[in-house]
Amino acid sequence: MFKTVVFKGEAEGKNILILGAVHGNETAGTRAQQEVIKEIKEAQHILKSGSVTFIPIVNEQAYNQDIRGVEDNLNRVIKFHENPKTNEEKIANQLIKEIEKADILLDLHSTHCENDQPFAFIDYPTKENLDFLNIIPVQTALAGWPDIYKNNQDIENNCTEEYAFLHQTRALTVECGYHKSIEAVQTAKQSILNTLYQFEVLAGTVTKTEKKIITLKKFIIKEKEGKLLKNFVHLDKVKKGEPIARYETGEKVYSEVDGFIIMPNHDAKINTECFYIGEKS
Ligand SMILES: [Zn+2]
């Protein structure tokens, strides 16, 4: 199971939880945490109050194999499992205890394509979470994820943000950019430091980043063989009525709004999400 590294300040304060490699091959958050842990141990930072719990590698088996998950997508099974069977269900049962203890959760992920822009998910845009979002060093945030899935019984959410929301823990997911890029590690590291500064676990000054919030409108399931019509990248603009994908039968999928293509997956398997459409809020 995962290892935690905890630092405590002398004064009472907020308890922060930082996660990396919830998806085993998304290692920018792991490397960033390792750097910050080293710096705290070397007394390069001043501990003020509260505590921080680092979990640089949440899904160790998946991390060791450089894969997303061993048996499940861990970020879809974050709940209590009465009889945990898979590697990920066992991790979830341990991880939820950490989330329940935390006041603030920062879940660091990274993405699969080179040049991917970093962004944050704000699944629950409460005032507290929007304030938290302000200090995350990315320019784009995606809202509306729970809404687009709420009428779909086949796909359960059960992600870290949802579990946190249900247990009064502030939470954001940051997609720091392409896994293997140095910039993604830097985005992850600045996200960690800003969080620790903002909630006064470490002494330091936060710089805020202006945000564009995009609300997800729908996800598109790939129903049969076919492909996306362009080499779309995440956050590309699309026009209402623009054809986005075509099935081998000739049938096309069009954008219903002037907006953005979100997380296009050119290699999507049949019956999985191949892209999302979002609109600027
Ligand atoms: Zn991920």
Summarize the structure.
This protein is α/β, with parallel strands linked by helices and 281 residues long.
Model description:
By secondary structure, the protein is an alpha/beta fold. It folds into 2 domains: 5-210, Zn peptidases (Aminopeptidase, 3-Layer(aba) Sandwich), CATH 3.40.630; 215-280, Beta Barrel (OB fold (Dihydrolipoamide Acetyltransferase, E2P)), CATH 2.40.50.100. It has 7 helices and 14 strands. The protein has helices at residues 28-41, 60-65, 87-101, 127-134, 145-149, 160-166, 182-198, and strands spanning 5-8, 11-20, 49-55, 104-111, 119-122, 140-143, 170-178, 212-221, 226-228, 237-238, 243-247, 252-254, 259-262, 273-280. An 11-stranded mixed beta sheet has the order 1-3-2-4-7-5-6-8-14-13-10, with helices on both faces. The chain has a 3-stranded antiparallel beta sheet with strand order 9-11-12, with no helix packed on it. The chain is globular, with a radius of gyration of 19 Å. 42% of the residues are buried.
H/E element order: EEHEHHEEHEHHEHEEEEEEE
> Going by CATH, what is the homologous superfamily of the largest domain?
Zn peptidases
CATH topology of the largest domain: Aminopeptidase
Number of domains: 2
**Bound compounds:** zinc ion
CATH class call of the largest domain: Alpha Beta
The residue fraction in helices comes out at 25-40%
- Report the structural category: alpha/beta
